[in-house]
Amino acid sequence: MTEKEAILGFMMGERTKAALIVATQLAMVIEGLADHEKEGANKVFSTFLRTIYRDIGLAHKISPQEEWASIRQELDRGLVMVDSRVSHGALDNLSRAISHATTISNRAMSFLKEKELL
Asked: What is the 3-state secondary structure (H, E, C) of the chain?
């Protein structure tokens, strides 16, 4: 890992983690909505998750780490649940994706600390 990759990996890892935390909150909110509100909310939620998915593609290019692929796999599985109109079913996938994003951030932070850049 280069210093540039570590800086960008840390930045993208934290950004992804924050977005995934918001996603878990959205999934819980959608579960509490009235049935007639859930369809529109699921469409918006699906769009939000797909935006995160695209960001992960960029993150993988600028800071290549295997966990980005794991995050994408978890989002793929979560999107199946959301597209099936059971958004709360994506919570486990989102939690695992958060764990992978945390791993990326921690690895980059450790590297930057070793280099005395953080």
From this structure: CCHHHHHHHHHHHHHHHHHHHHHHHHHHHHHCCCHHHHHHHHHHHHHHHHHHHHHHHHHHHHCCCCHHHHHHHHHHHHHHHHHCCCHHHHHHHHHHHHHHHHHHHHHHHHHHHHCCCC
Closest by Cα among 45, 53, 55 to 75:
53
**Per-residue confidence (pLDDT) for residue 87, from 0 to 100:** 82
- The tokens for 110 are 């450790």
Burial 4-16 (b: 16+ CB within 10 A, else e): eebbbbbebbbeb
CA distance 116 to 24: 34
Q: At what angle do helices 3-31 and 91-114 cross, to 10 degrees?
A: 160
Position 86 scores a pLDDT of 84
What is the number of alpha carbons within 13 Å of residue 101 lying toward its C-beta? 27
